[in-house]
Design a protein that fits this description.
Structural class: alpha+beta
Radius of gyration: 26 Å
Shape: globular
Order of helices and strands: HHHHHEEHHEHHHEEHHEEHEEEEHHHHEE
Number of helices: 17
Number of domains: 3
Protein name: Group II intron reverse transcriptase/maturase
Strand content: 5-15%
InterPro entries: DNA/RNA_pol_sf, Group_II_RT_mat, GrpII_Intron_Splice-Mob/Def, Mat_intron_G2, RT_dom
Number of strands: 13
EC number: 2.7.7.49
Keywords: Nucleotidyltransferase, RNA-directed DNA polymerase, Transferase
Distance between the termini: 14 Å
Helix content: 40-55%
GO molecular function, one term: RNA-directed DNA polymerase activity
Largest sheet: 4 strands, mixed
Length: about 475
């Protein structure tokens, strides 16, 4: 297709919305990858296409926040029961086509940050209509920008997960990248400069109506918990469906800058060139980023890593971002550092003189899980035991599945003992049991302990979760070309 040609071809009414949107995304991704300098026009028709809006509503309805209303007080259930989804989407499409759609301010909600620091994170809750339009925008824009994103970022990207980032760190730490710039961007989502961000969006998008819609969401404003209206001159409010994609678009500047030497023909493109740099006392480095959390692994010295810190700060400054002086630090991998809930450390293998990079569970997520277990098993709790066990199993097994690729077996056993003790304490207080009654209730005649059960639901220990090494993998293309392409 010619440069800047409209990407939406002939529509086929007999194709389901899911297949139609998938075909559209595959084409956009393929064209964006084939021509990195291409700017896409006529995308707005894809945003308000009925199939796109249906898919967008389904994604919004399937999110955990579907029951949370925006400033208009409507939830997804309200739309389904009282308005009707077809009429709701038809009216929204008419507004988009007529150019009368205007995003409403997001409703601010403050939630405590994990770790018990006492600090809060500000979330912005858009209305259901705004969430649907944001989801439609994401369906259209994500395949275009994904084609240009560097493979070193993993957060909020399709087919990628936190374990892939940890596997990268493990791989490079094993191969001599022992100095670590453990960076934290101060209030990243609240501070991104709108002008710099929109310039990045315009590099791939030419359609003025799409650009105006993205900018309208950035400028929609916030309704605080006290009822005050605040304008948003910077940032992408956390909580919006489009915000993670926009943050990745902005932070791709950092990815491109630090990974430019790894491009074909550049100074770090081959192992020979990297070895040559090191022989001359020059460093090599590798970036691993998950949304606004990132580390730079350095094969060099402390001074090299300090220089990279200044370089990173200079790259982030035009975006309106700065590194947190309190949380950004330079560490050697032998001292260990925390990333995405894991504690990564280069240390000697017990009983030998060999050193390896190990991945443990960090202290903060363990404290956080224990706090959730305590909240579910309070002595004075009157919640029925079956509900407690069901929720405990959900929380602990979801947590264990995330961390099962770390050195976690001992931690799993310790948490199982902690959970069992909390349950027994709750039950002894509720039923006024002594230890003899507990043993009578939960042991066999031969003295073997039985699981704690209620109406067919049993407490399921997480120690049985298989602990395996997570290997680096080839990230699959989220939008593979069809066989007949």
């Amino acid at each position: 297709m010619p440069q800047d040609a409209p990407p939406n071809g002939d529509a086929r009414p007999d194709v389901s919305p899911v297949d139609r949107v998938a075909e559209m995304q595959a084409k956009l991704h393929r064209w964006a990858a084939a021509d990195p300098g291409r700017r896409f026009d006529d995308l707005f028709n894809l945003v308000h296409d009925p199939a796109t809006l249906i898919m967008a509503f389904d994604r919004v309805a399937g999110n955990r926040g579907a029951r949370t209303p925006g400033v208009d007080g409507l939830t997804v259930d309200d739309v389904e029961q009282y308005v009707g989804v077809p009429g709701f989407l038809t009216d929204m499409r008419a507004q988009l086509k007529a150019g009368t759609f205007r995003p409403l301010p997001v409703r601010e909600r403050k939630i405590p940050k994990p770790g018990g620091s006492g600090k809060v994170r500000k979330l912005g809750i858009p209305t259901v209509a705004d969430r649907v339009v944001q989801a439609a925008l994401k369906l259209v824009l994500e395949p275009i920008f994904e084609a240009g994103f560097e493979p070193v970022s993993y957060g909020f990207r399709p087919k990628r997960r936190a374990q892939d980032a940890i596997a990268d760190i493990h791989q490079y730490g094993t191969n001599g990248y022992r100095w670590v710039l453990d960076a934290d961007i101060e209030a990243c989502f609240d501070s991104i400069d709108h002008t710099a961000l929109m310039d990045r969006v315009r590099a791939r998008v030419k359609d003025k109506r799409v650009l105006a819609l993205v900018k309208a969401f950035l400028k929609a404003g916030i309704l605080t918990e006290l009822g005050d209206r605040q304008n948003t001159h910077t940032g992408t409010p956390q909580g919006g469906i489009l915000s993670p994609l926009l943050a990745n678009i902005a932070l791709s500047v950092l990815d491109e800058h630090l990974m430019a030497p790894w491009k074909p023909g550049a100074t770090m493109s081959t192992s020979g060139r990297r070895n040559y740099r090191r022989s001359r006392g020059l460093p090599t480095w590798r970036l691993v980023r998950y949304a606004d959390d990132f580390v730079v692994l350095v094969h060099g010295t402390l001074d090299h890593t300090a220089a990279l810190r200044e370089d990173v700060a200079a790259v982030l400054a035009p975006l309106g971002l700065r590194l947190s002086p309190a949380k950004t630090r330079i560490v050697h991998m032998s001292d260990g550092f925390d990333f995405l809930g894991f504690h990564i450390q280069w240390q000697r293998k017990r009983g030998s003189n060999r050193w390896h990079v190990y991945t443990f569970i960090a202290a903060r997520p363990i404290r956080s899980l224990k706090a959730k277990i305590r909240a579910l098993t309070r002595r004075t709790s009157q919640q029925d035991l079956k509900s407690v066990l069901t929720r405990l199993n959900q929380v602990t097994h979801g947590w264990a599945n995330y961390f099962r690729h770390a050195v976690a077996k001992h931690t799993f056993h310790t948490l199982d003992r902690f959970t069992w003790q909390r349950l027994i304490t709750m039950l002894t207080h509720r039923h006024r049991w002594n230890w003899k009654a507990v043993r009578r209730q939960f042991t066999t005649p031969t003295g073997r302990w039985l699981p704690i059960t209620a109406d067919g639901t049993a407490h399921q220990p997480i120690a049985a979760t298989p602990v395996t090494r997570y290997r680096q993998r080839r990230i699959p293309n989220p939008w593979p070309a069809p066989d007949n392409a």
